[in-house]
Prior knowledge:
The complex is a heterodimer.
Chain A: E1 6-14, H1 19-29, E2 33-42, E3 45-56, H2 59-70, E4 75-82
Antiparallel strand pairs in A: 1-3, 1-4, 2-3
Chain B: E1 2-4, H1 5-15, E2 20-23, H2 30-38, E3 44-47, H3 51-65, E4 69-73, H4 77-80, H5 83-91, E5 96-102, H6 118-122, E6 128-131, H7 138-150, E7 156-162, H8 163-167, E8 169-171, H9 188-200, E9 204-208, H10 210-214, H11 218-228, E10 232-234, E11 249-252, H12 259-267, E12 270-274, E13 294-299, E14 313-316, H13 319-329, H14 337-344, H15 363-374, E15 379-382, H16 386-394, E16 403-404, H17 415-425, E17 431-436, H18 437-443, H19 447-452, E18 457-463, H20 468-477, H21 493-500, E19 503-507, H22 513-522, E20 527-532, H23 556-562
Parallel strand pairs in B: 2-3, 2-4, 4-5, 5-7, 6-7, 9-10, 9-12, 10-11, 12-13, 13-14, 15-16, 15-17, 17-18, 18-20, 19-20
Antiparallel strand pairs in B: 1-8
Helix pairs in contact in B: 1-2, 1-7, 3-5, 3-17, 9-13, 11-13, 15-16, 15-22
Amino acid sequence: MDHMDRNALSILVYNQPGVLVKVATVISGRGLNVNELTARREVGQPEYTRIVVDFIGEMEKLRQVRGQLEKLEVVKEVTLLSNTAATGDT
Amino acid sequence: MQLNGAQILVRTLIEQGVDVVFGYPGGQAIVIYDALYEMQDQIRSIVTSHEQGATHSADAYARSTGKTGVVIATSGPGATNLVTGIATAYYDSVPMVAITGNVPRDLIGRASFQEVDIVSVTNPIVKHNYLVQEVESLAGIVKEAFEIANSGRKGPVLIDIPKDISALKAEYTPQHHFIPRPAPEPDQKQLALIAEKIAASKRPLIYCGGGVTFSDSAEKVRALAEKIKAPVCMSMMGLSSVPADSPYSLGLVGMHGTATANMAVSKCDLLIAVGARFSDRVAGNRVKFAQDATVVHIDIDRSEISKNVSVNHSLVGDAGRCLDCLTAQAPQVGQSDWLHQVLRHKALNGLPDPFSGGEAVNPRAVITALKAVAGPDLIVATDVGQHQMLVAQYYPFSRPRSFLSSCGLGTMGYGLGAANGAAIGNPGRPVALVTGDGSFHMNLQELAVSVSNNLPVVVVVMNNKVLGMVHQWQKLFFGGRYSGTEINRKTDFKLLAEAFGAKGFRIAKSADIRPVLEQAFACGGPCVVDCVIDPRERVFPIIPPGKDAEDMIFTEDMLEEAR
């Protein structure tokens, strides 16, 4: 297992107050450290914002965080972006 | 029709099928309580002693009836007092809608009197929450909150309503009753694969959790078990799903589970988990748990699949629907040596004799007598600790939704509020709270609510003057250094009950058990039965934390030998 690889989640969220803290709560609650974070209005879709979070951490935790982010009402979809092809997006 | 926010809220609650709310009024909830006053012939308001008690009542009302529990509190301390109860509901997937008043919008963010950002506080323990910004959106939010609380894996939702919004007028538009969002359909390929695994299995075992209870699928578990000849073990949350007297039931699995259930997990070649999440109290050692088995996980929450224990096959969907599909595709199994072998060992479940101890009151004998005295309709609530595990081990549950306990969060102080909520939601059914002196001290003020509403709640206090479960761990794992657990309170629970306006009884020797419980259940109203229990009582068997079935300890002597 690739322990300390760089991995990112691309999270499409509704553009509403309090969304960033809800996403951050799930991430920090699982002990993941955020390396980089950007939040931008989704092009052509002003009702959505895309948050891209770059982590350093274990893939297993990242998958768990992804599953739990997908459960948030404010999240529309989550995509796993990985630099290690083998881990893939399952 | 123009109505203020509070009136819209209360009407919308009624439209969502709410007939009782639990809560506590206050400055920022005053308009909401005014609207409740107006509609009191359609919605009952139960005022508890403390907001935490209100959340536990709403929680148990939901667990025991299948409806949504509703709790209302004011801002600041009223709202923060809900936190433990909301977290309790979240961990056990109980549908709940919590409504808090907040300071008016122009005072938010100014550290105003009784202001707290309850939306931020509750983020990790709710499915969703709202700070209502416009009165026009309130009715839609309330309906959506019920929909979210009851869709997929159930859980709590919080709505924070600034006071000016509860007072502002808007056009009232009636809302339809919520419809839960459809669960995903079980994957056909996985179903076929799992049916093949069942056909190939010589030693199948079903492990069920709260998802079975909350999707009302107990009968469907039985149908699958009978068809494939699989015994069934249960987590705490799944306990009342398969009747204790069913030949297929192996009882509780996990840390304090039966030897039969835990050995079956070790020996099975196919484990079918239904609506359960392999918590550390079930799978103490995540790697060794069912390590020789193909593991199948049926759950409505996709994020639970392979979270704690890695599984071979999964079905994401409603437990009842998945079980129906699986039972239809599974082969009919005739004779099963495995089932005979497991059931032959069922009597050797490793549980100590409930009637040993002579004169001294054996808490196990009290628990088994409860059903004999109160009958099969009894709803049993517990607090947390030794008494809770003894109820899980010894009470012969026969109906789903009749066991109310904080299983995931382990909230001491849950029980009395829960017993009250169950009594209110199930008129005509007797309710017992089995508690300990430690847990009971935490929220015993809710006895005032039992008395005010004349609820048929029999509180059985296993009074051993110590915090028994931690005391037991200190004995087993910390060389008998009883730090902080020998509390030895002087509270006289019989007199305490009388001071609250309830009846008080005492069981001081084993011969008292039956006659005193008969008096307690015959009295018709709330009462407290103080049971004098030896502080050296231990809960066995136990699998030490992080270990598996092979490390199960049955007596203190065994632990000494292991050292």
